[in-house]
Amino acid sequence: MFPPGKNRVTPPPPPRRPHMTTGPPPAPARRTRPPGVCRESYEYIIRDVFHYDLDSILAQALDHYGCNSYADFVSMRISDIEDLVYPQSQTPNENGQSRPPIYTPLPKTLKALVRGFLGYIYHRHYVLKDPINAYNCMQIDHDLFMCYRCSAECLVFNNSTISQLLIFKASRLTPAEYFDKKLQLDPSYFPTFSNDKQWDSFNLELKALCRVHNLHKVLNPAYKPSTVDDKDLFDRHQAFLYMVFVKTLLTDKGKQLVREYQTTYD
After folding, report:
1. Per-block mean pLDDT, blocks of 10 residues, the chain (266 long)
2. CB of 86 closer than 8 Å to CB of 61
3. How far apart are CA 240 and CA 144, in angstroms?
């Protein structure tokens, strides 16, 4: 019995113990591998960049070498390309037993195709400043690759060693540095302007000389250099041509203009 006015309170149930599993813990989620280390990138290069079938002798030779991804292409040496062979099946022997395949050297044209692909990788990185990597290697365009194969860049790469190319790249001068190093022009090569009546002949000869020595952009008021190298080279050209004008503009107006622009060379 409970006192009047008091209600019996039902106690809450005891907390339930969590269900315990006896199996192994769930495996962590696997990271997605970039396509450049997967078979799909190899097949893309054979099929979509080279335009060859996956059962062609080119693919067979690369399979025999062990090429299985874009990363494998990058790791190839020039000597590896020269050693590429593909299997050719033989007819059974006189007892009807199968014979092992004969490994035949890959044709030179196909070796040149693979070597050209390595050259294109180099070209994209060092010349175009648009490197191919493990993530964008399946975006290589066949037409752009073929344009490279028809270029002088490909010719130089195919007739050089990788070490020679890397040494050349490391020691490469900027256009402005090359201009300074190779500058052999003498202001005395340029005509003098000492009389206003000489203007037509002076202007004609000046433009012709500037064109021959690649200084013509200084005479074009609409020209605006865009890249850092272009701006640096243009500054060198302006400085040199200003020195020419100091020595060749001999009229009063010419000397006035030289003094007026002595701080800008413009």
Report:
1. 54 61 60 88 97 96 95 91 92 83 94 93 85 93 92 80 49 59 66 87 86 81 83 84 86 85 73
2. yes
3. 39
Q: Could you please report the per-residue DSSP string of 78-138?
A: HHHHHT-EEEE-----TTS---PPEEEEPPHHHHHHHHHHHHHHHHHHHTSS----TTTGG
Q: Within 10 Å of residue 35's Cβ, how many Cβ atoms?
A: 19
Q: DSSP string of 58-83? A: HHHHHHHHT--SHHHHHT--HHHHHT
Structure token digits, residue 247: 């020595």
Q: What is the pLDDT of residue 224?
A: 87
Question: Which of 132, 125, 129, 193 lies closest to 157, judged by CA?
Answer: 125
Tokens 């622009």, located at residue: 261
| CB-based contacts of 232, cutoff 8 Å, min separation 6 | 174, 175, 176
The answer, as to whether pTM is greater than 0.90, is no
Scan for tokens 């019996």, then name that residue: 8
d(CA 97, CA 22): 56
How crowded is residue 45: how many other Cβ atoms within 10 Å of its Cβ? 24
Token representation of residue 147: 């344009």
